[in-house]
């Protein structure tokens, strides 16, 4: 993508709305943390840096995909890049269930040419684009063929994930065990044990009897 946006890498930007705190870390991930004292307050990943959103041959946003599971799918977030006086997360919404929309303001995208795709490509890929333009001009390919050529160029440049890459990611996610290491399993077990202790105390405070079993 645009080299001048790389200075955002390694930084994170927060936005608080109602009882939720959202954190956007460009080229890394988007997370959501429920600001409440509930014992099961939600804290999780809404998406991991995946690919660019390109419209009219211009970078218009970043797609953060493969977040925490949500029913039968994974949470995902589209981050819209808009011109602003400072770097800040300005707005968050959830247009459809588990698909989030973030608006990120930054002076880095205010120049009219700051988000053009063509200048970010290698000379070889720029030549391919020039050839596609010529073919379209000579009416040797249709608009649809031209768009398909550009999509292939964007995929070759690594700006978009190919269908094969997306499939590999899905398959690897299916076969990855829940706990990759004994250490991680032990850590999760410890956290759950602590949670059970807290719940026992809570039940005791409300005079509710707790009966465990041998498989607890």
Automatic annotation (TrEMBL):
It comes from Phainopepla nitens. This is GNPTG phosphotransferase. It comes from the Eukaryota. GO terms for cellular component: Golgi apparatus. Residues 117-216 form the DMAP1-binding domain. Keywords: Disulfide bond, Signal, Transferase. InterPro entries: DMAP1-bd (IPR010506), Gtb1-like (IPR039794), Man6P_isomerase_rcpt-bd_dom_sf (IPR009011), MRH_dom (IPR044865), OS9-like_dom (IPR012913). GO terms for molecular function: transferase activity. Residues 10-112 form the MRH domain. The gene is Gnptg.
């Amino acid at each position: 993508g645009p080299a001048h946006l790389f200075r955002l890498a390694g930084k994170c930007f927060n936005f608080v709305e109602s009882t939720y705190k959202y954190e956007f870390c460009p080229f890394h991930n988007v997370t959501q943390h429920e600001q409440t004292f509930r014992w099961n307050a939600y804290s999780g990943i809404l998406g991991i840096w995946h690919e660019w959103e390109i419209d009219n041959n211009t970078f218009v946003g970043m797609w953060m995909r493969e977040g925490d599971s949500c029913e039968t799918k994974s949470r995902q977030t589209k981050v819209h890049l808009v011109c602003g006086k400072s770097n800040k997360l300005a707005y968050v919404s959830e247009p459809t269930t588990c698909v989030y929309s973030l608006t990120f303001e930054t002076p880095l995208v205010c120049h009219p040419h700051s988000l053009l795709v063509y200048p970010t490509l290698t000379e070889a890929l720029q030549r391919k684009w020039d050839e596609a333009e010529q073919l379209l001009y000579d009416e040797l390919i249709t608009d649809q063929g031209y768009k398909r050529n550009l999509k292939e160029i964007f995929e070759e440049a690594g700006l978009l994930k190919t269908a094969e890459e997306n499939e590999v990611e899905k398959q690897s996610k299916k076969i990855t065990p829940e706990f990759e290491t004994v250490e991680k399993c032990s850590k999760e077990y410890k956290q759950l044990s602590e949670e059970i202790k807290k719940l026992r105390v809570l039940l005791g405070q409300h005079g509710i009897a707790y009966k465990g079993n041998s498989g607890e």
